[in-house]
User: What shape does this take?
Amino acid sequence: MSKNLSHLSGRKGLEYNLFEQLGLSAKGTGTPDKNEMERLQNEFLFGKANIHGTVSFYDFLKQENEGKKIYTCNGSACMTANTQDKVKNEIANHFPSDAIGEMCCLGRCHENSAFHYQGKNYSGQAIDHLQAIIQNQYTYQDTYTVNAFGTPVITRPYPELGEYYEIWSSCLKKTPISLLEELQTSGLRGRGGAGFPIAFKLASCRETESNTKYIVCNADEGDPGAYSDRYIMEHRPHALLMGMLIAGYITGAQWGVLYIRAEYPESISTIADSVAQLEQAGFIGENILDSGFNFNFKIIKAQGAYICGEETALLSSIEGQRPEVRVRPPFPTQKGLFNQPTVVNNVETLACIPYIMELGGTSFAKIGKGKSTGTKLISLDGYFNRPGIYEVDMGTPMSKVIHQLGGGFKIPVKAIHIGGPLGGIVPVHKLDTLTADFESFAQSGFLLGHASYVCIPTSYPIIEYIKHLFLFTAHESCGKCFPCRIGSTRGYEMLEKATTSEYKIDKKLMADLLETLEIGSLCALGGGLPLPVKNALTYFEDELAKYFSAPLP
Ligand SMILES: Cc1cc2nc3c(=O)[nH]c(=O)nc-3n(C[C@H](O)[C@H](O)[C@H](O)COP(=O)(O)O)c2cc1C
Ligand code: SF4
Assistant: This one.
């Protein structure tokens, strides 16, 4: 990243935003108009190469996206569900091939058969009504179970706006430091994957002096299989928005930025409507409820890039730079968006804050297990008998989640990929040994991550699954460091050759590649890929042996 470009992009402020302008100029055709790119380049004093570097990175801005009218989901859950051939065939009956694109995970993992057409997502049986969808004569609403097993922190219904925002008005009557202490007491840790305590970040941002600070909500939920952030944005938007307001009050930030993935159009519109409600009710804006505190929201629609879920890539993205991961320090709380102190938190993390402020940090800390306090939302895919979003107390046995809540599997399953593409592949015989908390997963060599569950059926070749993970990483790599940029492609090539020819993979070469990725990558995309691959090599050794030249390491 360039500090200079961050500064240049920030000169215009958040409201007239370079990245947003590029997105708007691509709206009609799928890629920004050349003249418009040149105009923006001159206006923001960016180089031509910088703008090109940005535009060519994103699935929904790059030249290849031009003319695309309809997109099929290529995420892991739709892939293992084996529904996409039918979807593609049906779509091919109505659209020429150059009008058909792909999107990575529409968050319809509970129904599969997912596709996106004219700003709307479809799944389940909708593909059988494609002709009517095209003629605008068919609407479709997906359905999934939502349930809490233990304490409903996020899934609890909230009262009407005025009553719910009494939590906010009472916060404004307290000192920011007392609210920060409440969060410290709660032990709330980030739900986006890393489990970092939120109070540390807020304290660091609060202590960094600046006239401008930002609270950024990471709503880029890119992990295929995860749709819990989507659930929150569409069904509990005010828990999230109030969480951001309170985080803003604690740190002295004036802006809440919601970076929401383009693959979730319904989330973007629900959040926009909810922000409008807050404006109307006077809960945001200038001198909120006569407190002297000012806070506004800005929604940024992402443009299709998994790496933008990594917090520093996300900040570069908002600035209109190519979203390359940044070296830390400085941490975003010291030098973040437009070089200003910034807190980046996941949707679910922020949505826990109103509960903590209403019922106290101690009551939140009582839920859960050890250092994993509170609850976790779990996304179950379409191979469960009751797919849906389940809120469980941290520490809940996985067997309960799978059998009591999810109702077990529809077909024989040999493993579950938990925690996104960089999470562990957990063989079914290990599930009973795990509980839903950070420590249990880490101690067993897996990762709770964002707690998405993608089932791998017994009949699904594990080699194809890990090939998919290498390909995914190769596509999504930001390219900053070579182990990830080159290693992911080389890994894919080895697996592809082994499955399509007599070629056998050298086990030492594979071990070297995984080690290089693990220790040589700057971020957890390249660094995290070896975990599921190693799990597969360990737990599915017999199935994989025929692709290797000697016994597995
Ligand atoms: C490749 C990659 C993708 C990520 N994707 C997401 C994401 O989609 N959503 C998210 O909240 N965090 C994601 N993260 C984690 C963020 O970098 C960051 O830790 C998180 O937003 C911090 O919020 P939290 O502390 O509330 O979890 C990703 C990290 C990496 C390395
Ligand atoms: S590991 Fe991959 S995604 Fe992460 S910084 Fe390196 S190249 Fe970029």
Observations:
- Residues 462-547 form a domain with the de novo design (two linked rop proteins) fold (CATH 1.20.1440.230).
- The chain has four domains: 70-143, 146-365, 367-457, 462-547.
- The first helix runs from residue 3 to 10.
- The CA atoms of residues 98 and 416 lie 35 Å apart.
